[in-house]
Every structure is written in structure tokens, then in C-alpha cells.
Predict the structure.
Amino acid sequence: MFIKPTDKNEVLSIIHSLNDSKASGPNSIPIPIFKALANDISPVLSKLFNLSFTTGVFPDILKTASVIPIHKKDSKLERNNYRPISL
């Protein structure tokens, strides 16, 4: 599978499209901070993404997630009434 290289403009566009009210992830950096720094970090992030695509190496720190159970419906005592989400 071939992945088209990205550039700073694509990364910048994606950063600005993020929802401010969503969880920040394991780095705990709030989305509004990413948006405020978007012009400075988008060139670095695009280089990092492209390097990862071309080498096939994905940083271990980005492979982790916190899995949280979210109640769907009915009794909270039944485990089948929960679904996992990854943050």
C-alpha cells in the first residue's frame, strides 16, 4: 500500500479542524494549544509523518492508548452494557 506524502499545509488543515472539546490524548496538551502552535509545529509534524511512512517505523510512544469503558444502556452492573473507547 502506498501512502501519499503529506505537507505542512495538510497537517495545518487537520490541526485546525480538530474539535476543541475533544480529549487531548496521552500527552495532555489541550487542542486549543495545538491550534495556537499549528504554524510552528506543522512543518515538523509533516516531516515526522513522512519519515514514518517511508521507513515503516512508528514511534512506540504513539502506539499506546488508555482504554475507558463507556456505558451504553441498561444495567451498569452488566459488562455487556459497556463499550471501550481508546484515548
About this structure: The longest helix spans residues 38-55.
